């Protein structure tokens, strides 16, 4: 079975879907692995490292893709890549079915069997394949470092001969995977941390990391599979009113709130930003799905009355060495889950396969993906 790993073509994407260590693991499992020349360079993995791991370094990406039984990617394949693939070839990557409807339709039309890492079920058996979590953890960590770097203050309390410096106050909105990692990182840097989430189930996790869980007199918004459900505008309006005073007291606000397949909820309005002290920083991790903050601009840093709002894009790519290692483990584990006796063998009774397979046999086979594509 031939596995191909092309160089990522998305602008600014430094990650690679397979690192030499995991290439070795797949070769050891009897798969033939080809990696496009230079594919790992931006994540600090050289062609020689892949060759030493037993992979073939392919100079002609087109031929490599045409011959492939399975293609591993970080970002969804482009049309130019899809058209090179053979009918029945498998693609595993982040597909973003909620925003990349045309790509999903094209994969179906070309008879590709595509798996979307976003749609893996959040069950124990799938944890080792959960790329959404591995990348979100890295983003949560980095968001705090970005804030610490931009703020005009120290994070920890410091007692010096010149006086005592009070610790920075950090508010993390949304305590999912990224939020919890942000809380842990801010605590390690010595900040006083509080957090709010519409799912009260996370209260204990927040507290176990040494942060205060903010309880608002609002109804819980638990959805399916441990996710939040989509909230009404009335709910969000009340939430903004109630959280305003906490935001005004914070030096750093990190927003991570998301509802799968929907635009990110608006948590912080322009007026709320104006209520913050000059020199404060907001990092909006939902920038790419519409933003949790009214003035966020994806990929930009904006200054509003002395408050810096960072709408960073693709934060995992800024730590490409580690995030590629984690991603590669995730994607290789999913691939090996689909392989029996050296060939792809799909069992649609299996929850992992059923939930993450988006296109098969010329059709979009996944109900969640179908819904996302139709509302995209
Ligand atoms: P996510 O990225 O979809 O959302 C981030 C957080 O935003 C969530 O905690 C959500 O409740 C919160 N949120 C949504 N609307 C909000 C609002 N208006 N105000 C404040 N917060 C809001 O979620 P995620 O990080 O992918 O994690 C979702 C859940 O899945 C978590 O409970 C996580 O622990 C769980 N999980 C389980 C597994 C597993 O069991 N294998 C793996 C990963 C994650």
Provide the list of bound ligands, each named once.
Answer: nicotinamide-adenine-dinucleotide
Q: What does the radius of gyration come to?
A: 22 Å
Could you name the ranges where pLDDT drops below 50 across 5 or more consecutive residues?
Answer: none
Q: Give the terminus-to-terminus CA distance.
A: 34 Å
Strand portion: 15-25%
Largest sheet geometry? 8 strands, mixed
Task: For the largest sheet, list the strands in their spatial order.
Answer: 3-2-1-4-5-6-18-19
What coarse outline follows from CA principal-axis ratios?
globular
Helicity, as a percent range: 25-40%
Q: Structural class of the helix and strand makeup?
A: alpha/beta
Average pLDDT confidence is 95
Q: Your description of this structure?
A:
The protein has 376 residues and is of the alpha/beta class. Helix content is 34%, strand content 18%. The protein has helices spanning 20-28, 47-52, 61-67, 79-82, 101-109, 131-150, 177-188, 203-208, 233-248, 270-274, 320-338, 351-356, 367-375, and strands at 2-5, 32-36, 56-58, 70-72, 90-93, 113-116, 158-160, 163-165, 169-173, 192-196, 212-213, 252-255, 281-284, 301-304, 307-310, 339-340, 343-344, 357-360, 363-364. It starts with a strand and ends with a helix. Nicotinamide-adenine-dinucleotide binds at residues 122-124, 127, 130, 132-133, 136, 173-179, 196-199, 226-228, 231, 239, 256-260, 265, 267.
In short:
By secondary structure, this protein is of the alpha/beta class.
Top keywords for this entry?
376 residues, alpha/beta, 7-stranded mixed beta sheet, 13 helices, 19 strands, binds nicotinamide-adenine-dinucleotide
């Amino acid at each position: 079975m031939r596995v191909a790993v092309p160089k990522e073509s998305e602008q600014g994407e430094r990650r690679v879907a397979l690192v030499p260590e995991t290439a070795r693991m797949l070769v050891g499992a009897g798969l033939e692995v080809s990696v496009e020349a230079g594919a790992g360079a931006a994540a600090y993995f050289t062609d020689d490292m892949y060759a030493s791991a037993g992979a073939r370094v392919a100079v002609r990406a087109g031929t490599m893709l045409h011959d492939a039984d399975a293609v591993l990617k970080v970002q969804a394949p482009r049309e130019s890549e899809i058209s090179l693939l053979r009918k029945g070839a498998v693609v595993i990557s982040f597909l973003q079915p909620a925003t990349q409807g045309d790509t999903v339709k094209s994969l179906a039309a070309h008879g590709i069997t595509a798996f979307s890492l976003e749609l893996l079920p959040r069950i124990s058996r799938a944890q080792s394949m959960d790329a959404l979590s591995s990348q979100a953890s890295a983003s949560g960590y980095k968001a705090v470092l970005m804030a610490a770097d931009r703020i005009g203050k120290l994070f920890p309390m410091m007692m010096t001969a010149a006086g005592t410096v009070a610790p920075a106050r950090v508010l993390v909105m949304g305590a999912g995977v990224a939020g919890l990692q942000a809380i842990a990182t801010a605590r390690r840097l010595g900040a006083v941390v509080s957090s709010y989430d519409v799912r009260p189930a996370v209260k204990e996790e927040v507290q176990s990391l040494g942060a205060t869980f903010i309880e608002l007199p609002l109804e819980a918004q638990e959805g399916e599979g441990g996710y939040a459900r989509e909230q009404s505008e009335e709910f969000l309006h009340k939430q903004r009113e109630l959280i305003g005073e906490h935001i005004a007291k914070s030096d750093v606000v990190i927003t991570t709130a998301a509802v799968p397949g929907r635009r990110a909820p608006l948590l912080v309005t322009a007026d709320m930003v104006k209520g913050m002290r000059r020199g404060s920083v907001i990092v909006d991790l939902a920038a790419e799905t519409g933003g949790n903050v009214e003035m966020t601009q994806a990929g930009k840093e904006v200054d509003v009355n002395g408050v810096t709002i960072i709408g960073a894009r693709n934060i995992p790519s800024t730590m490409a060495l580690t995030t590629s290692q984690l991603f590669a483990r995730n994607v290789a584990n999913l691939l090996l889950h689909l392989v029996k006796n050296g060939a792809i063998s799909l069992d649609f009774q299996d929850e992992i396969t059923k939930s993450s397979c988006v296109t098969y046999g010329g059709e979009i086979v996944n109900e969640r993906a179908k819904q996302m594509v139709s509302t995209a």
